[in-house]
Fold Tyrosine-type recombinase/integrase.
Amino acid sequence: MPYSWTDRGTVLIQLGRHHFAFYRGYLDGISLRALADRYLETTEDLGGEGELDLRVAKSMLKWIRGQLMVAAKRTGSNARLIRLPPEALRVTYGAHVPTLEAFREERDPYETFTEQELIDLFQEEYGNAAPGLDRRTERNNRLRNKQLAILRKIEDLTNADPSLSDAVGGWLDPAIAKRLQAAGLYTLEQLVGAVNNHGFRWYTKVPRIGVKAAKQIVDWLLLPETEAALGVKVSGRGIKPRKEWAVALTAPRAMTTDIVPLESFHVPHELNGAFGTNRGERSSLNARNDYEAIQVWLARYKAGSHTVRTYRKEAERFLLWSVLEAGKALSSLKVEDCIRYRDFLWYLGRQTPEVWAQYNRIPQQRWIGQRGIERFSPLWRPFEGPLSESSQKHSLVVLQSMMQWLTEQKYLHNNPFKAMPHLARRGTEGLDISRSLTVAEWRLVKAYLLKMPQDARYYRLRFILALAYSTGCRLSELVALRSGNLRSFTRAGESDLSWEIGVTGKGNKKRWVQLNPQVVNEIRSYFHYRGHESWRNIPNETPLIAAHPVPGRPGTPDDPLTSSRLYQVLKAFFAEVARSVSQEDFDTARKLNSASTHWLRHTFATHGIHNGMTLETIRELLGHTSLTTTSVYVTSEKDKRSREVEKLGDLATF
């Protein structure tokens, strides 16, 4: 039997002539056992057991019907007509007309005629001499003839090859095809494009398509006959997960002067900044041009960190715009050019093509691509849509910082961004309180948590919320915390121990954040739940927030949690809380559904202000000021900070 969908990943039409003969015999009313003996040759294989013969025949009938349904859809035929069983199209003749079986025994006892030849002979002799035919029988005759016509049409197209314009419904399982179509993948061309653009995990863009079904689809696309028929190939990154990519797959593309990633961007000699009009004298950098200067600036930060990715993105956008749009070297830009770039960020994706073309050389569609495209994909673009106001300000602040550093290294004569006063560094006074939870909303989150089953998920969520809320740590800082970062101290005039935790923030700067007693208790409880009886026995490298062990997979209760996973855990939790909110309180539900890890950082700051915490303390705890990397503090200042942190203790308690 040809492979089915579950075996091969497609319902590629692979019906043979004997399958069509089998199905025509079924429509003619011949018993399945007789058809199995004639066409399937299963008796010998199955030891002559008639019951097994019948079971195989029924399975074959179901498979053939499913294949014919898909083929009918691909050819534009009436698929429902194929499904009609012979009982629904029973033909009743007059008493003088023999049945088809009796006619076969009389005229073809040795079965030398094909089914169609026998039917044609029968119609030739009795078709016009059947006065007993009624309207229902005439209707059934017409439908029966249409059935046969569809079968002949499909049989002629049995060896048809797929093409890029074919609908996915014509080649894939109907249920799978519907899910692909719901995600906007209607043709095989769009399907191949999705695999090549999004890589191995393309199926995550299609609801209810899992890794197994995705692999089966890709396996079919990789067949030599499929590739030859379609004329396109699946890219290597669509075949294997990212962690299994070979070096060749991740190698940069050929250098070109176009909208491409920074590592593939070729800057023309006349625009590379070697002789920029804003170049300084006696530079402390060995960089010969703007591209190399940017690389030195990025190399100052930890490789692979979120900071490097963010800064590279902004420098990349700015350099591409400077060379391709402004037609200037980055080291030749003036204040007016920086203002132009600010306006470029604001209007990108917001103007009609006609208005955009009046002020810009490159169409805005060329700057914007789909979300999630890998950097080495031909469809990669530096923007994924219009930037929010906060994203625009962040972009300009990063670029001002880069240009200022290049000026300090005397690579540039001056920083043109300095003339834009709105880029002055914002303090905590400018905190976006719309992205923080009110006290009432925070109490709502706590109440929902306390109603959850007290399992591993509950204890981890409880600890994460208490720690993030009471410390204001960033996402990357939270997952980096280890038990060795905890230490105790004693306040002046007191004997009880207080606790603080060392946090390494941006720029590899370390700060000490005081912990209120409630959070310390949560740490003890969470470690105890993970099997640690005493802090003294916990290794220093044990993560404060751990991943849940997966049954059947190697792992321990102390395996670290990644930043992306922590983000997903909290997003999913806030979404659950939002769904639990009364439908009448739509605004609260919508706000909670948008909440994420960073919202807890803002919530810490806003609640601290409302509870009388000084702005200086908040800025220090958030890492907004430069703190010494030593642990020596004036006792009175440490006591003051720890006292202020206790003001949030009530809300940090679960």
Notes: The two ends are 62 Å apart (CA to CA). The mean pLDDT is 77. The chain has 28 helices and three strands.
